[in-house]
Amino acid sequence: MSKRRTDSESPPAPLFPSDEKVILELIRYDEKTYDMHADVPVGDLIHELDPDKTNWVNVDGLHNPSIITALGEHFKLHTLLVEDITSDNQPKAEEYEDYLFFTLKMLYRIEQSTIDYEQISFVLGKNFLLSFQEKAGDQFGQLRDRIRTDQGRVRKRKADYLLYRLVDIIVDNYYTVLDAIGYQIESIEEDIYNHPSEREFQKIQKIKKELIYLRKALYPLRDALSKLVKDESGFIDSGNQRYFSDVYDHVVHLIDSLDTYKDLTSGLMDIHINTLNTRMNEVMKVLTVISTIFMPLTFIVGIYGMNFEFMPELHWLFGYPFVMAIMAVIVIVMIRYFKYKKWF
Question: CB atoms < 10 A from the CB of 237, how many?
Answer without folding.
Answer: 14
